[in-house]
Every structure is written in structure tokens, then in C-alpha cells.
Amino acid sequence: MQSMSDYYSAIQLRSDRWSALREASSALSRDPQGARSEAQVKKIEGLFESLALIEAYWAFPGMQVFDHLRRQFEHKNYYDVAFAVQRITRALTTGAYRRRHIPLERDSADAEEHEDEVIQSVEARALAKPYFEVMIVDDVNEHQERWLKSNFSRMRRIEDPFHYETVVVPSLQDALIGVLFNHNIQAIVVRPGLIMESKVELPILTRYLDRAGGIDTIEALSPEDYGPELCRLIAKVRPELDAYLVTDRSVEDIAGLDLGICRRVFYNQEDFLELHLNILRGVQARYKTPFFTALVEYSKQPTGVFHAMPISRGKSISRSHWIQDMGAFYGPNIFLAETSATSGGLDSLLEPHGPIKEAQELASRAFGSKQTYFATNGTSTCNKIVVQALVRPGDIVLVDRDCHKSHHYGMVLAGAQVVYLDSYPLNEYSMYGAVPLREIKHQLLKLKAAGKLDRVRMLLLTNCTFDGIVYNVERVMEECLAIKPDLVFLWDEAWFGFARFGPTYRQRTAMNAANNLRERLRSDSHIAAYDAQQAELAGADDETLLNTRLLPPPDARVRTYATQSTHKTLTSLRQGSMIHVNDQDFKGEVEASFHEAYMTHTSTSPNYQIIASLDVGRRQVELEGFEFVQRQVEAAMSMRRAIHTHPLLKKYFKVLTAGDMIPEEHRESGLQSYYDPDQGWADIWDCWEKDEFVLDATRVTLAVGGTGWDGDTFKTDILMDKYGIQINKTSRNTVLFMTNIGTTRSSVAYLIEVLVEIAKELDELLDDASIMERRGFEKRVANLMHDLPPLPDFSRFHDAFRTDDMTSEGDIRSAFFLSYDEKNCDYLELDGSINDALDSGDDVVSAQFIIPYPPGFPILVPGQVVSKEILAFMRALDVSEIHGYRDDLGLRVFTKKALKQQAKTNAARLKLNNERHK
């Protein structure tokens, strides 16, 4: 039996303990007097003991059933125990307990698993009532607990849209552990009898308490405040839940308290029917999908189609003699729901007033924004919409240099003056990390010294990066606002949409940080702290400001935008994305321009199936996002542990840890790795709360240079072609495995099997290799792991595209469009004529974006001076494609004449602008 330190989550532990109990009880029932029976009995006793601490937080099978099983075991009824445990384990695995009552008696064998989830059709499962659990928090005895449960059971009605069971816990701490442990819980009833401390002492469970935070602040509370405080604490970790407070305190006492997620307060009454109806109503509010429901209803209507979509209602397919296979593959419903109509119960994405508008409002609630907008052509378009809505020609924008190419093109469209920010390099793995806060502050202070702070409009960063580096979003925003109090933030969270629904991850999302900051700026404690810091920093130089954690002024404006690829990390059809807005000046300053930008980039014929999938995807994460994200993290952690501990895998592969991917100066917690073979699992909550950068645990970067294959070859020739394993990103010597909410433990097991097979084949290959073959292998490994070119920083914009020498911003738009005239451009060969140009002392200036894939970020942008370091990097690349570079011609650059003429044009424009300013 594995040690508890081997488990990252209590859910994994619970699942494996039940499986172990099934195997052990089954073996004992087959041979109760056998030689190993005594050992089996001891093992089962240990399993019952460990499960007893966990089962109290779940309604199925429930402590009453669990205690009955233990008594049967103590009475040596091994056959009955084995039968019941097998039923329970199967029900937990298949989810059958959600659909029906699970009989545990042996004489109910004729009711065998004919309705089990695993063999039910999709249609049958869709018709079943969704199941959830309600946690009641009250310190009651066994008789009172049965009374509470029976009263809730008696309230059930056939017409109820959902089915739920209740679980009772006694204390505030147990409730916090329970909601973080039991993903079935959708509502909490907090009664006045609860106590403070849990009687459970189990590290893997008490670890969950740390994630709730604020535990140390409640010890001074009086018992009458435990209920309201519990509602507040649950709001911090699982804000999607509903709480109902039963209290005997006066209305006046309750009115002034922060009740967190409490939907309703019940005074001095045991109105179980009203509680029951409120619980169902609360879940229904999250379950509703306005647009998906409207589209389903529309598809049922008999409709005459006289608009420009032959595929609508499937007419062009059903009447065809040649494309019937398409109709058979997709089924009829997708075509019945295909239309360009915006009436008949539907809505317009461009001017929503009906179900689309309501669906976007529900998404705003789910993701913690003030406004949310759907997009049907990906986050690339979302990025351009936000930039165009907020940035005017000539505005200065600070941009993460290795961000997604859509941002660079957005700068071109907006006419922004771009200051590129360099991320810290990870030369050993040919990838970039993220932009240190010190670098951002340094650039802002330079712009301030040059008198340009009024022109600085936006900071644009990727959170989290493709490789999983996550910013301390709240800290970045507060320190930047201390320098520029009205700075706009655009956080590209294309790969981070799931983060809202995990307590650890949520604190580093843009919307959560914006809401926290808005609340904190209004507080008296912040005003006092700001005034004290201002007095302390009076006359401070830039170095002091760079070394100080700056506080924003209380009147700073919180202006935050996040773009998310819902289709990348949550359930949505491809290109389904969202824009989340939390901007205090949106209504007064941005709304009109945002609408125009949205109209500019959004199709007048958006795909309704994508919109419906966004609506349903939002429903899913509000009701089971917590569970799915938890399982996603568990899958990635299991992968880490398996590779870290497997003796053969360690020879050729290495899982990159936080210590490998984040320099020490950015890890204040000192955490090196999420898993250590000797120490077990680290609690990541502390580093996620404090460190400047953290590593997203759901991404596993595997160094594969030890195999002698570069990342691209390993991805294509080995994983894809040989084993059918798909991945997105590689670097020169790494591959990235991304788990998602659909990743299963079986998928992880298959990957580990594949890696072991690859390692075994390499072992055999080297065992039979000649001396020269072995030397060749060692040389390839050294080339991949040690002889790596340094990653180049952004060089500079050519003077023809700059305003002055004081700061580094450049006019990327002018450079982009200057290249449209072929007379302004020439081609230089990478290993020939470009060297002569550099040796002559002339500036060589790129005329277009040069984007190697992988890694997929521009190493050159229009108007950028080509440096020797960039050329060395390009020559060392062994990737399959470099967008913007032509093998037959070389690198496209500006001619001397074009640069000279552009310099004159730029000077004249600057002179005119200065005169206007005067």
C-alpha cells in the first residue's frame, strides 16, 4: 500500500484506497482461512482506518453505510463485505450512484449494473437528473443527523430538476476541508451549532485548510460569528457555490457582516421546504444556458429557409446524392441548429439583447469580470479587439517581446509606439521565461524621466506563458499603478482560462487580481500604508524605487482586460474565446470604441454552434470546473512523480522543475520542485501566494536531449508517427505535455508506458552500438544539452522609426507598411551577403516579422536592427519552418535609400508634432 506522502490529492488517495479495499476483501472472501488471510485482515483494517477519515466528507456511500461495512467485517462476514465494497467501488468509478440507488445486499444481484454509467448511451445520461451533494455544517449527534437528513429527503418532488444527497460535518474547519475535497458539493447549509476545529488529523486533509487562507485570523471570533465567517472563507476558495445561513441573530447584527457566498439567511426557523427550493433554485441559476437552450428550441421549429445558407436545416445535404457521408458523420442536429437568423428566439452576437447577452452576463459572473464578450474566431482576434479599442496612434505600449504574434500585429493596426520587454532567458532549454517586474518598472521610470509617462497607455503580458510561467498578477499591477496610476493592463490568458476554477490558481488570474485590488485600494489600511510609504520615499532615486515594493495611490484606476481561449483549456468548439473586462473607466471612456473594434473584427455570420458551446462550457465550469481542474492537476502531478522516480526514465529524460525554469531571485519561497522522491509532495500554496513567478503544474516540460533527438524530431518522428501522441510545443531539447480537463489517469499511464518503451529501446541500441556509434550518440546529446546558442534580447528599433534616443519605443506600423513597396526592400542571404553588410558597419533592418516555429515568437519585427546575436541564433535553429524567411532569397531587409527617406519623413513628422504640442 502506497504511503500517503505519495499522493498529491485526497481524491486520488480515496479512489486508490477503495480499489485496494476491493481487491483485498475479494481475496479474503475467496480464501478466508488461507495462509495469507491474517495479512489480508490486517491490510483491510488499515484501509478501513484510513478511509474512515475521508468518507465523512462524502454523501455516498455515507458514514452510516461505511460503519455498517466495518461492523460486518469485524463479524467476519467477508462475503457480504466483498460484495458491498465491489458495488461501491464500481459505482464510484462509473458514477452510477449519481443516477440511481445502489443496492449493497447480496440478494440484490439481479439488479446488477445494467444501468451503469459506463454502458449508458449519451442520450440516456442526458435525460437523467443531475446529481449533487449539500453540506450541512452543524455539531449534532447521530440521532439529530438522521433527523436532518430525513427532513431534507422528505422535501424531494418528482418535478425537481435535480437530485441531491446531504452530508453533515460538525466544524468550520471540516466544512473548509470538505468543499475543497468533495467536488460534488454545490451548496452549504450553515447552522448555528457549528464548532471551530476539526477532530481529523491527517496531513493530506489539513493541507486543504492552508488553501483556504485566513484560518489564523478566526481564532479570536466568538462562536456566533463562525457561520458568517465560514461563508466568507468559502467565497475565497469556491466562489461558485451557494451558502444558506440559519441563524438566531438579529437582522441588524447580520446586515453589517460580509456573508461571502451566502444567498439567503433563515432566521430562527426549520423551514426545510424553503431551504430545499432555494438550493434547487441556486443550482438552476448556474445550470441555465440561455443561448444553448434557445438554439435547441429553434432547431425543433418547422422553418422555411429563404436565406443565404443552403446547409441550414441540412437541406443541401439531405437532398444530395454525393455528400450523404457528411450528414451521417455529424448527425442531423448540428444542421437543424445551423442558421443565420437572429430572431425566432435567437440573438445577434454583434448587437446582443436576448439569450446571447444573458449568456455573456452569466459568463461574466462565472469568471469574475464586470463584462464578458464572446468571440467565435479565436483569441488572436480578441487580442486585436482589445488593442484597437484602447490604443490610439502614438500611444506607448509596453509589450512582452515573445508574446503571441497577434499582439505584434495588433500594434501595427493600432499604430502604437512599442517598447519591447525582454523575458529572462533559459538558454539551457532554448526558451524564454517571463518579464521580471524590475524590467517593467525600469522601463516605466525611464519613460517618466523622459516626460513621456502621459503617453504610456498599456502593459501587455502573457499569463501564463506557453511553457507555464505564471506572473504574480496582483503585484505587477499594484507596482505599475504606483508609477502610472491609470495604466491599462491586457493579460493574454489564452492558456489559463481554467485557472479561475482552482483555488490555488485563481489568485493569479487577471480578474481575481483586479477585484482584489479594487477592494483594497478603498480600504483605510491601504490609504494609511500608502501615505507612510510616500513619506518614506520622498526624493528617492530610481534604484530605491526598483528595490521597493511600491504601493499604488488610493485613487489609482484599476483597468484590466483578459483574453482567454476557452477552446484551449475548457469545453468549447475550436475558436471559441472570451474577452473579460474589469475596467473602472470602461463605461465612460472605452465602451464606444470597444464596440467599434468588436464590429471591425467580428464576423457578421458568427458560428452559432461555437456560441452555444461557450454557453455550455460556462455551465460546466460553474458546476464541475473545480472537480475537473483538480483532476487535471492530479494527472500532471502523477506524471511528474512517475518520471522522477522511474530508474530507466531518469537516464534519458528530465522533468523540468520550478527551480529549472524560474531563477532563484524570482522564487522568494525557495521552492525547487513540486515533487521530491525523498520528501514527497511540496505544498505549492505558499509559493503561489508569494513568488514573483510560479510554474503551472498542469504543464510538464520534459527535457529530451538525453535521447539524442531534438524536440521537433522527438515530437514528430517518435511521439506522433510511432505512438500517436499529440503535443503542441517543443524547443531545441524539450517537449511540452499539457494536461487539460479531459486528461485521464489512463492517458498518463499510456504516456509513461511509451516513454519507458522508448528508454528501453535506447538502452538496447546503445548496448549493441559500436564505439563510433556510441561516440556519435554522445556528440548529439552534447550538442543538444550543452552546445546551445544564447537566446538574443530585442536589439533596438532603427532610428528611422524612433522618436529620440532617450527611450526605446519604436513605430512598428510605419516599418510594417514601408515594406509594402518592393522598391524599399532587398534580400540578404543568411550565410552570405548579410555578413558583408554587417561587416561594413551599416545597420541591417528587418522589413518583416521573422517567426521560427517552434518556439513561435518573433525574433525580428519590422523596423528592428539585425544583430550578430540574432543571426547566430537563426543559424543554430534546426526547426522545420521560419515564418517570414525565404530559403531561396534570404532575409528581407530595408534598403539604405528607404531608411534614409523614412528618417526624413520621421523627422518632419516629429517636428510637426512638437510644434502642435507647443
From TrEMBL:
Cofactor field: pyridoxal 5'-phosphate
Gene Ontology terms for molecular function: transaminase activity
Pfam family, one: OKR_DC_1
Source taxon at top rank: Bacteria
InterPro entries with a match to the protein in the record: LL-DAP_aminotransferase (IPR050881), Orn/Lys/Arg_deCO2ase_major_dom (IPR000310), PyrdxlP-dep_Trfase (IPR015424), PyrdxlP-dep_Trfase_major (IPR015421)
Keyword Transferase included in the entry's annotation: yes
Key words, A-Z: Aminotransferase, Transferase
Domain Orn/Lys/Arg decarboxylases family 1 pyridoxal-P attachment site intervals: 289-515, 561-745
Name of the protein this chain belongs to: Aminotransferase class I/II-fold pyridoxal phosphate-dependent enzyme
